[in-house]
Amino acid sequence: MLLLRHCRSLTPFSPLNIQRRLVTPVVASCAVRLCSSRSEDQRFYYQQLHSPYWRYGLAGLLAGTGAVLAYGLHHHKAERVDTSVLSEEKTSSFPTISQEEVTKHRSLEDGVWVTFKGGVYDITEFVAMHPGGDKILLAAGGALEPFWALYAVHNQDHVLEILSEYKVGELSVEDLRKQQAVKSSDPYSTDPERHPVLHINSLKPFNAEPPPEILTDSYITPSAIFFKRNHLPVPQVDPASFQLHVEGLPGGVLTLSLQDLKTRFPKHTVTATLQCAGNRRSEMNKVKLVKGLNWGIAAISNATWGGAKLRDVLLAAGYNPDVAQWAHHVQFEGLDKDVTGTTYGASIPLKKAVSEDGDVLLAYEMNGEDLPADHGFPLRVVVPGTVGARNVKWLGKIIVSAEESSSHWQQNDYKGFSPGTDWDTVDFKSAPAIQELPIQSAITTPADGSTIDRSQETVTVKGYAWSGGGREVVRVDVSLDGGKSWQVAQLQSSEKGLPPGPSPPTGQAWAWKLWEIEAPLPPETQEVEIICKAVDNSYNMQPDSVPPIWNLRGVLSNAWHRVKVKIREDEE
Amino acid sequence: MLLLRHCRSLTPFSPLNIQRRLVTPVVASCAVRLCSSRSEDQRFYYQQLHSPYWRYGLAGLLAGTGAVLAYGLHHHKAERVDTSVLSEEKTSSFPTISQEEVTKHRSLEDGVWVTFKGGVYDITEFVAMHPGGDKILLAAGGALEPFWALYAVHNQDHVLEILSEYKVGELSVEDLRKQQAVKSSDPYSTDPERHPVLHINSLKPFNAEPPPEILTDSYITPSAIFFKRNHLPVPQVDPASFQLHVEGLPGGVLTLSLQDLKTRFPKHTVTATLQCAGNRRSEMNKVKLVKGLNWGIAAISNATWGGAKLRDVLLAAGYNPDVAQWAHHVQFEGLDKDVTGTTYGASIPLKKAVSEDGDVLLAYEMNGEDLPADHGFPLRVVVPGTVGARNVKWLGKIIVSAEESSSHWQQNDYKGFSPGTDWDTVDFKSAPAIQELPIQSAITTPADGSTIDRSQETVTVKGYAWSGGGREVVRVDVSLDGGKSWQVAQLQSSEKGLPPGPSPPTGQAWAWKLWEIEAPLPPETQEVEIICKAVDNSYNMQPDSVPPIWNLRGVLSNAWHRVKVKIREDEE
């Protein structure tokens, strides 16, 4: 116990926590983010990341996403956690405590109790020492398991040792059974483990984005931190018995196994950026509340996808140009279902689906490996240049049709409206389903609210830029004076240090560009507003401000991105 | 003479001028526009149009473009002008006057002298009575012929009668010969007659746009008022001996006569909007001077084009998909030449040229008639969705190539740059040639600076909206409070009163939409800022303001369009 008390003075860089040093700032940020109101969190999160206290840890974190990903190695350990400590305790004479009693202890005032594998723990005194910060309060009054499952860093023997010090009782057998029953009846119980670095917007269904600084640390986003956007629980699909059904073409229904898709059609790889329609919704929420997940700027990622061309599969199913006389859409149905059995669904224009240059893939690989469960294992459609929502995951059925998908997400969601349209006046039929997305860019470094020392003289500004429909980003302008003057950033279309890839053919620029500029700090000011705006090769520009593009669903948030940073003057 | 003096009190609605009533405001506006500084003109022009004085005439003018076009009927009269008055005068004993002497009389102070067919006229006293206003001063000290040729309304017997009253002498024979010689050596001397309603930005080469109110009076812009954008003199092309050469394909050079184009290939018609890259440049000029013609908001028009598909002609010349392995561009050369013999030229991506859905035409018809001389007679390329500059007129040669056109207009012009780029720092190689244009819209009614009576209670706002690349305009938002709140306008995709045309296939929305909204006048304000902004089906939006998209060539001016109107309160 005495040893543990010392933790307070040792964190975050005690020898005990040597491995935790890199992940600490991120975990801390997640915690803060989940526990307090959103706009405050972000400020605090970024302040944390950029305060001198965390700088050392952050430097390591940003040195390479590889470092962050190392924590993924702990995932599998979760399955074979050492319960010896707990078994040993079971022979002791701790009192039996009901879940009702545990539930009463959910705050520092009432005490913070948690359960873990049938044990009850009063961790009130540990809260302040928790390397992950206040996030631990999310588990107060309930079970630790779901949180530790998300943040695999806990699955280490010394963490269990720490926990054992706080034991105060045994959960009643009846309540323990209930806990286990809840878990197994939870449709999300089979959702995969996720990388702890992700900022979670919603746990069930799981929606999360990587921290912005990490996002643009690599040109190809590692799958583990690629933003996750699930509408429903992740279905468990057996790749051996998986079947894809292709309907609506003269050849009748074509049914293909995963093996068929891999062997009967040439494999193509396409590097394509996917972006959620709601990326940057949080900026619209600041104008006026909208309906939807409060995405930051990182609901966008870039991966290399491998699979069969949808065009080839449609041709195999009997597609011919006559079909285009009556059919105008290709519908997709996922294997993910809600409680009524309704699947996720969407559609794209037939023209995009069958175009040789459309590059629509039935992808079974992401970044050179099988699709991860969160990204549609074993098969998803990747529609380059098109909003994420049409890139249906866990793809089970393709229907060539005269009509768009009738799904909620195609008909009554993911559409843009005028700022003057509200939920009383909206007519979803009056707007087209979002397909191609407009020009977008954002600043990932420095973070909003961070502080720069005047002695640095310059600031390095980094970010991403992308446009839908295969339109190539041709320029990113950056302003350090709130938009009065502009400098042109350096564009990057491959991993840093590698030569740029070949220019994509006209209309097939599916991947984002990262960008960077080192700009002199403006003199005689203590706060700088940094802005970025991108231009694509149709010379579309981002709108200046959020309110005029505000819409009730908070989609298509692509105004100039702005961050404010403070300049700390030298003390002398 | 006495009769003429009475004109002062009779204009503009004297029985004498009954036919002039409709055209008067427009001619007046042209005059003001040409004689004073640009930004002032526009204000004055619009004030004129909307002052009660002109309202009656304007109402007639706007009732239908047909009324305006009626003046075109006078064109041919110019060729057979009645010179009886002048012949008669020649027998009289007017003194001989040199051009040098005439040139000294160029102002109201020094007297305003002009020449016409060898006669010298002191029209000082007539200036104030001129129905076309001060524009008459443009001719001061020189010949009337070029101005009367532009404004055919003068070619009427009673105008010659009026002129004869002011005769003061005969131009010396030597100077008359010089005048005629100048005319014949002028490379622009064979340029066609133009419609007098056009606002002229440059006479040589001829560049002009219609008045905004007339522009959106018809969905299909009549050819006579379709904006004119010439880089060089209009070439005289004999349709019988005309040849088009198609080069760079495996089949060798294919040479086609106009007859070949009309008979060997199916005729297609496409309704497509063309827009000059410099449309709305005047708004950029107000931020900071740019290089280029000071276009208002009407360097955009919509026509129905008829001709052979470029794709069909390229296939006939031997195009096959293997060509796309090495060729990426299709270059066009016009028959219009500068003094060094250099022709106008441009190129488009091969992909656009050969795409079945690209709808690129080798057009020999405009609005159901042979192409007018100003629009490329006998053949031009029409590249729907692409900036006007690539729609090469008087087309003489097509070259399939690995390279873009090397012409000045492709390489060192018609490109977009950051607002921070100036003529000292610009690197034209760093930006792509403009092809597809971004989303655009503007307000054509009411005019900036006009006044509305409070008693009207509502204001009808009208305009156009268009996007490049076949992207369809899906919404136009209108604000009457400077952008704080927005209403959705009614879109119109056919002539008013006719049913809307069928929705264009995805990616083939080549024609603009006109729009209209009747909105209540905001209470308790004497000035209203009306703004429009459009959205296309890739949900691209117009940028809010001009300065952040300002560029040294003043192209791509597509910020929100704003007009300010005054509300005149009722007198009671």
From TrEMBL, chains A, B:
<dbReference type="GO" id="GO:0030151">
    <property type="term" value="F:molybdenum ion binding"/>
</dbReference>
<comment type="function">
    <text>Catalyzes the oxidation of sulfite to sulfate, the terminal reaction in the oxidative degradation of sulfur-containing amino acids.</text>
</comment>
<dbReference type="GO" id="GO:0006790">
    <property type="term" value="P:sulfur compound metabolic process"/>
</dbReference>
<keyword id="KW-0349">Heme</keyword>
<dbReference type="GO" id="GO:0008482">
    <property type="term" value="F:sulfite oxidase activity"/>
</dbReference>
<keyword id="KW-0479">Metal-binding</keyword>
<dbReference type="GO" id="GO:0043546">
    <property type="term" value="F:molybdopterin cofactor binding"/>
</dbReference>
<dbReference type="GO" id="GO:0005758">
    <property type="term" value="C:mitochondrial intermembrane space"/>
</dbReference>
<dbReference type="InterPro" id="IPR000572">
    <property type="entry name" value="OxRdtase_Mopterin-bd_dom"/>
</dbReference>
<keyword id="KW-0500">Molybdenum</keyword>
<dbReference type="GO" id="GO:0020037">
    <property type="term" value="F:heme binding"/>
</dbReference>
<dbReference type="InterPro" id="IPR008335">
    <property type="entry name" value="Mopterin_OxRdtase_euk"/>
</dbReference>
<keyword id="KW-0408">Iron</keyword>
<dbReference type="Pfam" id="PF00174">
    <property type="entry name" value="Oxidored_molyb"/>
</dbReference>
<keyword id="KW-0496">Mitochondrion</keyword>
<dbReference type="InterPro" id="IPR036400">
    <property type="entry name" value="Cyt_B5-like_heme/steroid_sf"/>
</dbReference>
<comment type="pathway">
    <text>Sulfur metabolism.</text>
</comment>
<keyword id="KW-0560">Oxidoreductase</keyword>
<dbReference type="InterPro" id="IPR005066">
    <property type="entry name" value="MoCF_OxRdtse_dimer"/>
</dbReference>
<dbReference type="InterPro" id="IPR014756">
    <property type="entry name" value="Ig_E-set"/>
</dbReference>
<dbReference type="InterPro" id="IPR001199">
    <property type="entry name" value="Cyt_B5-like_heme/steroid-bd"/>
</dbReference>
<dbReference type="InterPro" id="IPR036374">
    <property type="entry name" value="OxRdtase_Mopterin-bd_sf"/>
</dbReference>
<dbReference type="Pfam" id="PF03404">
    <property type="entry name" value="Mo-co_dimer"/>
</dbReference>
<dbReference type="InterPro" id="IPR018506">
    <property type="entry name" value="Cyt_B5_heme-BS"/>
</dbReference>
<dbReference type="Pfam" id="PF00173">
    <property type="entry name" value="Cyt-b5"/>
</dbReference>
<feature type="domain" description="Cytochrome b5 heme-binding">
    <location>
        <begin position="94"/>
        <end position="172"/>
    </location>
</feature>
<comment type="pathway">
    <text>Energy metabolism; sulfur metabolism.</text>
</comment>
<dbReference type="GO" id="GO:0007399">
    <property type="term" value="P:nervous system development"/>
</dbReference>
<protein>
    <recommendedName>
        <fullName>Sulfite oxidase</fullName>
        <ecNumber>1.8.3.1</ecNumber>
    </recommendedName>
</protein>
